[in-house]
């Protein structure tokens, strides 16, 4: 049994994609440990393996070799059903493109994962979905359709949907890749609040300025972890928002001043 305070432990996690005769080594023996309460930003060049790693950690895809302990449990030994079950229980996933159902209200989108809650862990789905939307600041938008919401609001709905199952980890692959600076900082402010409330977060971002909202940066290169460090001068998204709104200045200016 792994130490349960380690939410994520990987041992030599490897992923090889077979494309006809070509083999792509997307992940090469990754050893990564994430403790409960951390907020990790994964960075690295395009093609370095960030999304592949997220998909393994989020139980969306299985590795070619190596072990993955999630909340102390080796998930590689599970069969397909158990694997899907553990994903539903433990992981909340947020994508760059929001992935909301179009003709479905915010509230219904957030309720959706609870339909797969086979063991009825969440007793009152409707109530749980409402409180998840309240948590992300969308109390007054529950009955809106996705196309009646801004990009930032749509991503909040997606975050509420990820939270409604009460996961151990929130995983986000470039969550602000489709958003402008103001909406991006608002999402990071929400992430910082959720993280303070105890949720472990692992996210991918291309922007170093945004990575500085996390507590730790893991930098990938060619399927390896190249560097892994704790952020010393962590940015506060709420403070950046106040400044951004006060002088209406470009984010670049905020980043230069700090
Ligand atoms: N389904 C797949 N089949 C074959 N090769 C893949 C597949 N998914 C990813 N790859 C390859 O694995 C490597 C890592 O890809 P990955 O998507 O993890 O990179 P990334 O760091 O997320 O890049 P980006 O910043 O562009 O999103 C790349 O060489 C990519 O071409
Ligand atoms: Mg990617």
Describe this structure in words.
The protein is of the alpha/beta class. It has helices spanning 50-57, 80-90, 106-111, 125-135, 151-163, 181-196, 208-211, 237-247, 251-257, and strands at residues 6-19, 22-35, 39-44, 65-70, 73-74, 91-94, 169-173, 200-204, 216-221, 224-230. The strands form two sheets. The protein has a six-stranded mixed sheet with strand order 6-7-8-3-9-10, with helices on both faces. Helix 5 (151-163) runs parallel beside helix 6 (181-196).
Q: Summarize the main sheet.
A: 6 strands, mixed
Q: What is the total tally of β strands?
A: 10
- The termini sit apart by 44 Å
CATH topology: Rossmann fold
CATH homologous superfamily identity: P-loop containing nucleotide triphosphate hydrolases
Overall shape: it is: globular
Q: Roughly what is the average pLDDT, rounded to an integer?
A: 92
Report the CATH C-level class: Alpha Beta
Question: Topology as H/E string?
Answer: EEEHEEHEHHHEHEHEEHH
Number of helices: 9
- Percent helix, as a range, is 25-40%
* Residue share in β-strands: 25-35%
Q: Into how many domains do the coordinates divide? A: 1
Corresponding CATH architecture: 3-Layer(aba) Sandwich
Radius of gyration: 18 Å
Structure ligands: adenosine-5'-triphosphate, magnesium ion
Which strands sit side by side, in order, in the main sheet?
6-7-8-3-9-10
Class from secondary-structure proportions: alpha/beta
Unreliably modeled segments: none
């Amino acid at each position: 049994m792994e130490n349960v305070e380690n939410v994520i432990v990987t041992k030599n996690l490897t992923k090889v994609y077979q494309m006809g005769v070509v083999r792509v080594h997307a992940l090469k023996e990754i050893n990564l440990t994430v403790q409960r309460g951390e907020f990790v930003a994964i960075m690295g060049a395009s093609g370095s393996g960030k999304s592949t790693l997220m998909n393994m950690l989020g139980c969306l895809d299985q590795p070619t070799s190596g072990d993955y302990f999630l909340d102390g449990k080796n998930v590689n030994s599970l069969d397909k059903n158990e694997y899907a079950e553990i994903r539903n229980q433990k992981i909340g996933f947020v994508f760059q493109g929001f992935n909301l159902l179009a003709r479905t209200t915010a509230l219904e989108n957030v309720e959706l994962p609870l339909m797969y809650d086979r063991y009825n862990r969440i007793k009152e789905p409707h109530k749980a979905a409402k409180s998840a939307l309240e948590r992300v600041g969308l109390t007054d938008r529950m009955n809106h359709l996705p196309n009646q919401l801004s990009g930032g609001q749509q991503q909040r709905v997606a975050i509420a949907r990820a939270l409604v199952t009460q996961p151990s980890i929130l995983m986000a692959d470039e969550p602000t890749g489709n958003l402008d600076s103001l909406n991006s900082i608002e999402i990071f402010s929400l992430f910082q609040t959720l993280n303070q409330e105890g949720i472990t977060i692992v996210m991918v971002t291309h922007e170093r300025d945004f990575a500085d909202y996390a507590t730790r940066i893991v930098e990938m290169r060619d399927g390896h972890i190249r560097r892994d460090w704790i952020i010393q001068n962590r940015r506060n998204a709420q403070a950046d928002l106040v400044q951004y709104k006060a002088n209406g200045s470009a984010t670049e200016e905020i980043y230069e001043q700090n």
